[in-house]
Specification:
The protein is an alpha/beta fold. The protein contains 11 helices and 11 strands. Helix 3 packs parallel to helix 4, helix 4 (143-150) packs across helix 5 (177-185) and helix 9 packs antiparallel against helix 10 (258-272). The protein is globular.
Length: 296
Amino acid sequence: MLRAVPRALRLPRPWRPFQARGCASDGAAGSPEIQVRALAGPDQGISEILMNRPRARNALGNVLVSQLLDALARLQEERQVRVLIFRSGVKGVFCAGADLKEREQMSEAEVGVFVQRLRGLMDKIAAFPAPTIAAMDGFALGGGLELALACDLRVAASSAVMGLIETTRGLLPGAGGTQRLPRCLGVALAKELIFTGRRLNGEQAHSLGLVNHAVAQNEEGDAAYHRARDLAREILPQAPIAVQLGKVAIDRGTEVDIASGMAIEGICYAQNIPTRDRLEGMAAFREKRPPRFVGE
C-alpha cells in the first residue's frame, strides 16, 4: 500500500548577504566555542562551522551544543549557503563525543534532558537544507561520530580514529548512532561495531563505506578539511535548488517503500520545474555554455 507522502516542500528563498559571526575560542570561560564563517572568492557559497574547545577536545557540552544549535538556526535562513562544512580548530581531534565530565555533575533527569537536546542537534544537522560535509582530521568518537553521521558526506584523514564507543563506557549511542549507522553500513555491521565499541582509522572507515574519502594526513593536520573543501567546490557550480530537492528526495525516499519514494521524487521534481535555474540549465545546454545558476 502506498504510504502518505509529505506535503509540498517550500522552495528555498533567493540568496541575501551573509555576515560571518563568532570567533574561535581560546578555551577561556565564556568564550565562544565555535566559529561560523562564509568563505569568499571562488569558494563563495561554502560556509564552515569550526569547533574550537581545545581543553575538552571539542566534547559536546551544554555550551557547545547551544552554540551549534544557534548557528544552524541562523545558517538555515541564509539561503546563499550552498554547502556547510563541519571542521575542528583543535589539532588531532574532530570531536571527542559527549562531555562526560560535565555529565557526571548532572542528575538523571538532567542527563535525559541533555541527551534529548543532543539528539535534536543531530536531527537539525541531518535536516539542514544544503549539503553538509564532516571533515574528520582526528578523533571522532561517540557523539563526535554521531555528528559526522548526521552530515550528508564524510571525509577523514587516514590517521583519524572513529567509533561508537559508548558500550565501553556503560552506555549506548543516544544521539542517533543506533539509527544512522545501520542506514549507512547495514544492520549486521553496525551491530558489530556498536556491540564491540570498535575504533576504526580513516582507511578502515573508507573501506566499509563509513566515509566517502580517506586522505593521507599532512603536516598541518588538516588534510581532511582540504579534501572536504575540494568536494564542496564540486557541488558549488550545480543548481542550488535542484541539489537541495535532491537531498530531500533521497533522505525521505530511503525511509519508505519504493512506490512512496517515487511519489516523493515526483513532488520534488515538480517543484523544480518552474525554477529559473532549470530554464537556465536548458538554455546553457542549448547554447553550449556553462550555466549561471542564481538559486531561484
